[in-house]
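Sharing a chain and its predicted structure for anyone who wants a worked example. Both blocks are below, sequence first, tokens second.
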Amino acid sequence: MTHSTILKSNRTNYRTKLLSGIAVLSLLGFGMTLVADLGAVKAFAQNSAPAVVQSMPSFADIVAKVRPAVVSVKVKLEATAMNEEDGQEFSMPDLPPGHPLEKFFKQFRDQNKAGKKGAPKQYGMAQGSGFFITPDGYVVTNNHVVENAIEVTLTTDDGKTVDAKIIGRDPKTDLALLKTIDSGPFPTVSFANTSPRVGDWVVAVGNPFGLGGTVTAGIVSARGRDIGSGPYDDYLQIDAPVNRGNSGGPTFNLNGEVVGVNTAIYSPSGGSVGIAFAIPSETVSSVIGSLKDGGSVARGYLGVQIQPVTPNIADSLGLKSAKGALVAEAQPGTPAADAGLKPGDTITQVNGEVMASPREVSRRISQVKPGDTAIITYIRNGKELTATVKLAAIPEQKMAAADPAAVVKASPAFGLTLAPAKDGSGVLVTDVDPSGIGYEQGMQKGDVILEIGGKSVAKPADVRSAIDEARKDGRKAVILRIKNEESTRFVALAFPKA
């Protein structure tokens, strides 16, 4: 049984796979013939130009220091029961009442069910990696390695097997904390205090394909990667070969400090192609600290729906640059609404840190404990303002109906057919022309336009008027605030070039 796939790309056949799981290494039909023409090799060596010899770093000392702290994580899983759609359940044929075969099929069905009830439970196995962070046996791994575990067993680098229990899991960052039943002491590694730079050497240690402690090396290829696995994505990208079974294993810097936890790869085949992703140590340290203290992670909650600032949105709002996070909605009764944040505000800083995107805002807010305050810097109508917000804990819409009267077209280039919403909450989009600009920007039938250019709209004529006004003002685009069943957001519709 394997764990796989957290990402699928709509544009390519490549896929990102979680690294945990048991793999069967097949060597069927593989052969190798080595033919060496020693004379040709010697002649080539003599005739070749002198090579520039550049010494490569040796990782032997680092590996000797850290590998004893890395463990194999083996997990026993209960197999999911088969359902009727799997074709495992017997179904009665459609027979008329009193048919001679009715009794026979009924008896066969009952025997089939009785046999299944008495069958033993089925179990599966999964495998990943982890590492000790305390001498008494706390171990870091990935959430997806242990999330369905019935039993967890660790195998240390010297071959010793110890049982462990799950202390806490955090699906949003894909991290988990385990604790051995045995109190140790165990060899440990520590987290790095500084982030690696792009181009720095790193060493990954783990249990790929269940082979046991394996070491690979490479460099940090990029930082701050968003792979779409969760709201707080901030991955290191490394090119050290990493494969299934490496999930939860550590990546070290040349000081032998943990700079990341290996979590995912980007691959067409499921094997390493030199693109792996690791959760950075600063995130791991914070999350694991919370799991160790309370078994869960408490994150701050602001209560806004935010979206990226595109160039067209920036132009529509008169912003100097397309950076920050645009507030699409400040939900009633939340810290954001209580602090006076409104739709159309653009968040640019949190606690003095510049925020380039909604992802950065979400991640920074999540790092503040509920009950603590955060200073939010935002832009409204061209002015920079600040709000001191006391954050809450994260708390654990209905499509509008149209008034059939007065269905009209918006600007032809936008391709929107509009009608007043029956509840008076805005203007309902009743149809979207696939060739129009609205369709290109993701607008759909059932969207409700609440505002245009910061002004509320109640009927289609308001929409037409606001579009005309923006065009006369020389805007490159008109900005709409819309809502649907899932969210509230801003959409900038660019005027076609003459």
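Comments welcome. The mean pLDDT is 78.
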